[in-house]
Amino acid sequence: MSSGDGGIEMENRQGGRIEKLIRSDLSRLKAYQSIIPPDVLSERAGIPLERVIKLDGNENPYGCSPRVGRALAGYPFYHIYPDPEQHELRKALSEYVGVDAAHIVAGAGSDELIDLILRLFIEPGDRVINCVPTFGMYPFCTEICGGKVIDVPRDQSYALDIAGIKKVMDEKTKVIFIASPNNPTGNITTQRDILELVELGKVVVIDEAYYEFSGVTVAPLVPQYENLIVLRSFSKWAGLAGLRVGYGVFSTLIAEQLLKIKQPYNINLAAHVALQESLADIEYLRDTVKKIISERERLFTRLGELEFLEPLPSQSNFILCTVKKGDARVMYERLCRRGIFLRYFDNPLLRNSIRISVGKPEHTDTLIEALKEMC
């Protein structure tokens, strides 16, 4: 036997022992279904990268502010650790949100903040209410933190079932997650429904990752309710998905605890610079948001003209469609071969559905023509 074979045999023996030390609940955990990057999509479809039409990640097709690239290229202090207490970031965000900086904590995307919130509140066996269908990170992070996910289905219009939420609550319930606008359905939750949940005394997390496309927020209410949390992102409206920066609005007590338990340097300096430059170029970004909203309405109209699709009204930067005739998976695969990438769903609450991110006008036109050819 060669030394190489012996090494493999030793690794296999050790692997059997190590496997027993891994948390049993995590060994059974299903990996999160992540978005595939454009270069991989290009290779899979066998087409040039520039021909890829990526409508699967709810990203801003216009990209970030031009100021961001210039500032990143000229920044001289990448060799220095970033500020662990995020003083400048929190100050800039407080001016944007309209609450004191003491209420704000930034994260490496709002995904990190979801994880930190659950680490702060959830002990093994504690329950987290998840209003399905919704963003998959809520149950994913809950299970990693040892919590128990309690799914409460939304109604036929994808509104919250408030009575259903109240029915499943008990003393082990700690957190309720609500995405507004909801992903993947695009509808908002009313302030009245949110405050009814807040009055129940549990931690209510309102994920406003798509706030800039809806204009509807409860962030100004956070200082009045210690158990209300609002999460936001710079991935969607500001085009910073690749730099991973988001933030949350919390009671000052929760903010203090999160700053204590987060990784000290969780926001890298490139993300620091990009966020501040984005807020300094707010009118440019608001203009791209207006373009996306306008194109959302045009896309909704064009999709509605196709007899085999039923688009849902959306207040986000994507549109969910029920495939009335045909198979969503087959449609998805045929579009992939043409370099057009969407998301498709086929589960009990989202039967035979596709979600389309809003792109540029030319993306809409290419998509619609491709769909027409499938009739």
Explain what the structure shows.
- With 375 residues, the protein is of the alpha/beta class.
- The chain has two domains: 38-62 and 283-372, Aspartate Aminotransferase, domain 1, CATH 3.90.1150; 67-280, Type I PLP-dependent aspartate aminotransferase-like (Major domain) (Aspartate Aminotransferase, domain 2, 3-Layer(aba) Sandwich).
- Helices cover 42% and strands 16% of the residues.
- It has 15 helices and 13 strands.
- The chain has a seven-stranded mixed β-sheet with strand order 2-8-7-6-5-3-4, with helices on both faces.
- Helix 4 crosses helix 12 (269-280) and helix 6 (109-121) crosses helix 7 (137-144).
- It starts with a helix and ends with a helix.
- The model has no long low-confidence stretch (mean pLDDT 93).
